Task: inverse folding
């Protein structure tokens, strides 16, 4: 292999560096009408009426549509593959517009106008009368008897409860001399904050609907728009241009169905629906806030006798990806630190918060924060070093999971940890920092994680693609696994060049824009799956293409098919490696042959029935200014085993982004809500504390390259893994520095103030009453 | 596209005054980094605006006849920071406004806009209070000068008459001479931040550096408007700089400040960091003045 | 109510232009809609994200909170203007490519324009200074790591100095 494994320049780099790349809004027809949404200004209640008269009289307003106009068709929004088994289909709890308002920001009505200003004025002029209902922000409260109900079909607001048992927990904890380490761990509601907001435009063409959208999942959006509008799926065409990031938010049908419906209500004219940043925060999707309760029972020898894990996932108002996120979180525990006796429970619970969906890591940043906080406290309870305790207990080499079929072929965890510890200078610094006693104290923390690649066997894993041999010997490549900024197109180009036998990845033209009328059906970008799953179908289609090429070459050259190969864009004779003809000559000959003309193309679908463990860890070094309640992250390293790297430079870049997201998760990011009204308080980029350029140290990305045996290219998941272990590593570094265990993130100055006060590290003599963080 | 009813563009100060009289309902827009944001939010939607941004005569820093520093109201934050006169006489102001938002915001944001908003979190405000700045207003009857503490009436309200615009901020010579200051901004992240609390301290030491002749401290976000701390200043004035003094001085600010509980930060938290910031800012100011905290 | 227009003359990417502009328009609106300069991106429209950043008389501004009428007489540069007439990239654009500083590409135009302002000062900044100068842009893909490398590398090259990361 010589085309993969190289740090090639991105195929879209030139256009992006020169400002040419077209995102959905750059393709906007100039006559598009503007759709603005009227969002509810209560957290829970029923819409009694919407007075549209004033809005309709505003010059430029074309139409006002309310929840009383929208069809009462239920549809799901999650970007999951369709399931032929109705029992495994996503919960269909959405309407285009809602009479039953379930969160502050829910969609109640729309104004369609000729210009932006009229659309805004129209929305402001709508008068909505509500019958308010009590609302819920907290999962435990939502599960109480008699709590207000969000969805009739789900008593006690529980969307789903699943459990997992191994051994006999109750019996195991009777063992003499066990040390118990118990904690409640809370993770926050956060948002993806891709810099391009979601938006789309829609119009009718030849009785069909075309939607151009900033999405990760065009083929799934096609199905959902069909479902939501009650139209045959073939009536819908989705076009996905370049997008400015997604991180899972755009792995959901956001406003494509509503936008498409609006077009049908104005005679098929083109309408645009652009989310403002404030809408992205509140009315798109967020990461699930998950609360964990963990009880670990330890033997003095440093082994784990039993563990109990309860997970309560805050779903917000609508099901979206639903229980699959907390199920994945729960599922990580028994494999991460295997022990004989475990009891796990996971609940997904509706509340009146914004709907939670997929977000980079899909439950694992939450699980990792809880698990690695608890494991750290376990090590400390036994007086063991954090590194040593993990080395002793983390998933061993040879570990096999019967359900996914995954095997830990190498000893990846320990290899990653060794590399991380060496980079951060773990042993020396641990000793040195233990002596810090003043106002400023330093500490080192670590955390590990594992991650599945793709969604098999929980859902279908399929990948299709098409390769077309061009007349110049290059190959045009199309697939449904989308480029969303992560560099997928470049990895595909490298793999195709490798698999077909082209001279360079530049000889592959990846069609970055998916059009569901043209692009082979694929599921899109999610689950860190693209490179892994596309690898299977690329290998398969390349074999088909090669077969066709060599068969035609046989006609031309009279050499036996088995005696030829394609190397660096030439057809060669294996025996002496002599060049018989170039691919260009072959393509020209085939296309323009007056007797047997052929355009050489191949297309195939591969159903992937494998999965693979991806592993990694973070080491973080912090400096804590105790009186100022401030943490400075001084140093951080992530080490990943994601198999063989297709493009090392792009892999490292992707790790940096995930680390950055994890730093925000650990220290600053949180969407907060007014307890009195349920209103989100900080849904904008000033008040929501996304890390800036000045909040990061150098980000070090390192790899352990153990080739994944199931993958044709030896690769496995990397997209989401970098976001998983950073926050708990930072939490553990703060603990190391100060001796204070903090069980909820983000660990921002408010939290430090409260925790340091409780721990007696700071004392304000003028203040006698208890500490109040948020008021 | 902003939802604005009309835009009137002033080419000169006289022009602006005339437009103010002609359109009493109109809102003045300088750099616009606050006004346009509010208009987009809907708060000021549908309003008329008087743009003064193109009045270049209102830009720049100079010394007047009495050697007072004169900062034109439209001078951007980045120009204030880079200005040689500011660097020489009142460097702390340049440092303070260099912590506003982001580099782009510091290129568009003006000191006039920052003060006329009347918000307590303005990064310039605590330093201007600590230097007893004078606000220059120009109206149909000429120029009026108001001490900055009187300029701020209440949160969001400042003393500008219907025919006036703010044309400059003055820092009196007596205020900056031999005086050294330090500003600390407390934010939840290191850039693009609105101050959780801002603290500006300046001192003038005796020639032998053994006595603090004059100490002034002011806060932003410690109350509805920026404020000085007389109790803390009384502790430091005339005292010898020392670590113990810094503790005592810092502790005294609790008697002066009145921060509130909000979702951005609790009162208790703001009080706690106010004390720590006072201590650190005083220590740094004394060092800058050539003194030592014994 | 009739729409209020104003004739705005300015120089955009080195070319003198004039157009009747709706006074309600932001400079982002004008550059994108009237001049089709779509490298000017909309990420927040309140001056927080930096995606719409451009240069006006050599200084970086978020064009979303800059009125189009204020462009009168100004010298404006967008990312499109950095490409030479024969399609050659400038050094800073090439550095963004070489250092893998581009992922989704949405923050890239704004970042590069700020980098131009920084580089034009011809100063050698410390790492901390450089981070501060670049802090007006939010990015969710890169963690800023490779953006930092690209700008720092170009700054050193222009000074004829060896880079030390």
Result:
């Amino acid at each position: 292999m010589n085309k993969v494994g190289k740090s090639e320049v991105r195929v879209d780099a030139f256009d992006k560096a020169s400002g040419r790349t077209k995102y959905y809004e750059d393709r906007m027809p100039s006559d598009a009408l503007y759709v603005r949404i009227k969002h509810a200004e209560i957290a829970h209640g029923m819409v009694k009426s919407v007075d549209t008269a004033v809005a309709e009289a505003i010059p430029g307003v074309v139409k006002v549509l309310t929840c009383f106009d929208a069809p009462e068709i239920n549809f799901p929004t999650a970007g999951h593959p369709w399931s032929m088994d109705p029992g495994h289909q996503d919960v269909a709890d959405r309407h285009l517009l809602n009479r039953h308002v379930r969160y502050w920001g829910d969609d109640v009505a729309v104004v369609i106008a000729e210009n932006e200003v009229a659309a805004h004025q129209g929305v402001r002029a709508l008068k909505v009368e509500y019958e308010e209902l009590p609302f819920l922000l907290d999962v435990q409260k939502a599960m109480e008897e008699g709590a207000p109900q969000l969805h009739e079909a789900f008593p006690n607001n529980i969307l789903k409860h699943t459990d997992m048992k191994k051994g006999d927990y109750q019996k195991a904890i009777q063992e003499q001399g066990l040390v118990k380490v118990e904690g409640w761990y809370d993770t926050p509601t956060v948002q993806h904050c891709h810099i391009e907001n979601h938006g789309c435009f829609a119009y009718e063409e030849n009785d069909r609907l075309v939607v151009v959208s900033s999405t990760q999942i065009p083929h799934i959006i096609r199905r959902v728009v069909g479902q939501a509008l009650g139209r045959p799926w073939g009536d819908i065409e989705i076009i996905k241009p370049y997008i400015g990031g997604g991180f899972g938010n755009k792995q959901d049908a956001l406003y494509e169905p509503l936008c498409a419906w609006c077009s049908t209500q104005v005679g098929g004219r083109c309408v645009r629906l652009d989310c403002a940043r404030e809408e992205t925060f509140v009315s798109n999707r967020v990461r699930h806030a998950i609360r964990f309760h963990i009880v670990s029972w330890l033997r003095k020898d440093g082994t784990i006798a039993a563990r109990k894990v309860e997970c309560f996932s805050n779903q917000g108002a609508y099901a979206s990806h639903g229980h699959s996120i907390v199920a994945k979180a729960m599922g990580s525990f028994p494999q991460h630190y295997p022990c004989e006796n475990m009891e796990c429970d996971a609940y997904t619970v509706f509340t009146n918060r914004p709907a939670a969906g997929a977000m980079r890591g899909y439950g694992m940043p939450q699980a990792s924060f809880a698990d690695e906080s608890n494991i750290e406290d376990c090590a400390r309870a036994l007086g063991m070093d954090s590194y040593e305790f993990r080395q002793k207990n983390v998933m061993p080499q040879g570990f096999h999971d019967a359900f996914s079929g995954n095997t830990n072929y190498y000893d990846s965890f320990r290899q990653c940890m060794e590399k991380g510890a060496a980079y951060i200078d773990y042993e020396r610094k641990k000793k040195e920092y233990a002596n810090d006693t003043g106002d400023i104290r330093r500490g080192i923390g670590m955390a590990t994680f594992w991650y599945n690649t793709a969604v098999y066997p929980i859902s279908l894993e399929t990948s299709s693609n098409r390769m077309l041999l061009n007349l110049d010997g290059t190959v045009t490549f199309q697939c449904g696994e989308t480029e969303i900024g992560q560099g997928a197109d470049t990895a595909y180009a490298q793999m195709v060049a490798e698999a077909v036998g082209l001279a360079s990845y530049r000889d592959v033209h990846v069609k970055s824009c998916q059009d569901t009328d043209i692009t082979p059906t694929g599921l899109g970008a999610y689950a860190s799956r693209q490179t892994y799953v596309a690898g299977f179908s690329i290998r398969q289609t390349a074999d088909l293409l090669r077969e066709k090429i060599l068969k035609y070459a046989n006609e031309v050259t009279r050499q036996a098919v088995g005696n030829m190969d394609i190397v660096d864009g030439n057809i060669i004779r294996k025996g002496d490696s002599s060049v018989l003809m170039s691919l260009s000559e072959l393509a020209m000959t085939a296309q323009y042959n007056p007797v047997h003309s052929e355009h050489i193309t191949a297309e195939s679908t591969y159903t992937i029935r494998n999965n693979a463990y991806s592993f990694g860890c973070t080491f973080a070094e912090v400096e804590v200014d105790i009186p100022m309640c401030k943490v400075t992250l001084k140093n951080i390293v992530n080490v990943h085993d994601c198999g063989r790297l297709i493009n090392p430079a792009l892999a490292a870049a992707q790790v940096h982004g995930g680390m950055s997201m994890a730093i925000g998760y650990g220290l600053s990011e949180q969407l907060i809500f007014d307890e009195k009204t349920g209103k989100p308080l900080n849904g904008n980029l000033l008040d929501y504390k996304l890390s800036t350029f000045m909040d990061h140290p150098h980000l070090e990305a390192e790899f352990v390259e153990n080739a994944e045996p199931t993958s044709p290219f030896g690769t496995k998941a990397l997209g989401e893994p970098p976001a998983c272990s950073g926050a708990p590593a930072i939490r553990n570094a703060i603990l190391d520095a100060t001796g204070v265990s903090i069980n909820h993130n983000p660990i921002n100055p408010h939290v430090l103030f409260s925790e340091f006060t409780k721990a007696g590290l700071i004392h304000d003599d003028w203040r006698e009453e208890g500490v109040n963080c948020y008021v | 596209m902003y939802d604005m009813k009309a835009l009137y563009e002033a080419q000169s100060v006289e022009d602006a005054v005339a437009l103010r009289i002609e359109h009493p309902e109109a809102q003045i827009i300088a750099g616009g980094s606050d006004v346009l944001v509010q208009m987009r939010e809907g708060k000021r939607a549908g309003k008329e605006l008087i743009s003064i941004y193109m009045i270049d005569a209102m830009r720049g820093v100079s010394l007047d006849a009495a050697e007072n520093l004169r900062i034109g109201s439209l001078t951007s934050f980045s120009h204030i920071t880079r200005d040689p006169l500011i660097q020489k006489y009142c460097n702390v102001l340049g440092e303070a406004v260099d912590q506003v938002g982001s580099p782009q915001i510091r290129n568009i944001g003006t000191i006039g806009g920052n003060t006329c908003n009347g918000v307590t979190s303005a990064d310039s405000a605590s330093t201007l209070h600590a230097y007893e700045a004078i606000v220059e207003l120009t109206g149909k009857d000429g120029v009026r000068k108001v001490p900055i503490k009187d300029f701020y009436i209440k949160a969001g309200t400042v003393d500008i008459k219907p025919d006036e615009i703010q044309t400059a901020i003055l820092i009196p010579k007596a205020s900056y001479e031999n005086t050294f200051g330090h500003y600390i901004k407390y934010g939840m992240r290191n850039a693009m931040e609105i101050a959780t609390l801002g603290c500006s301290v300046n001192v003038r030491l005796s020639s032998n550096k053994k006595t603090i002749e004059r100490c002034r401290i002011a806060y932003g976000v410690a109350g509805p408007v920026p404020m000085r701390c007389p109790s803390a200043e009384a502790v430091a004035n005339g005292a010898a700089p020392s670590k113990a003094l810094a503790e005592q001085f810092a502790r005294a600010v609790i008697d002066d400040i009145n921060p509130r509980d909000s979702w951005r930060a609790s009162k208790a938290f703001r009080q706690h960091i106010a004390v720590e910031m006072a201590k650190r800012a005083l220590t740094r100011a004394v060092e800058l003045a050539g003194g030592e905290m014994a | 109510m009739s729409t209020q227009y104003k004739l705005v003359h300015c120089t955009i990417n080195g070319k003198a232009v004039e157009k009747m502009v709706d006074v309600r328009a932001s400079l982002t609106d004008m550059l994108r809609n009237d001049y089709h300069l779509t490298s000017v991106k909309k990420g927040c429209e309140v001056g927080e994200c930096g995606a719409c950043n451009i240069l006006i008389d050599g200084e970086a501004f978020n064009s979303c909170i800059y009125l189009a009428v204020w462009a009168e007489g100004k010298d404006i540069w967008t990312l499109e203007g950095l490409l030479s007439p024969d399609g050659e990239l400038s050094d800073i654009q090439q550095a963004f490519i070489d250092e893998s500083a581009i992922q989704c590409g949405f923050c890239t135009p704004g970042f590069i324009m700020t980098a131009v302002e920084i580089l034009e000062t011809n100063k050698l900044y410390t790492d901390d200074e450089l981070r501060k100068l670049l802090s007006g842009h939010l990015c969710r893909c890169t963690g800023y790591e490779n953006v930092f490398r690209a700008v720092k590398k170009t700054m050193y090259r222009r000074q004829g100095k060896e880079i030390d990361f």
Notes: Chain B has 13 helices and 14 strands.
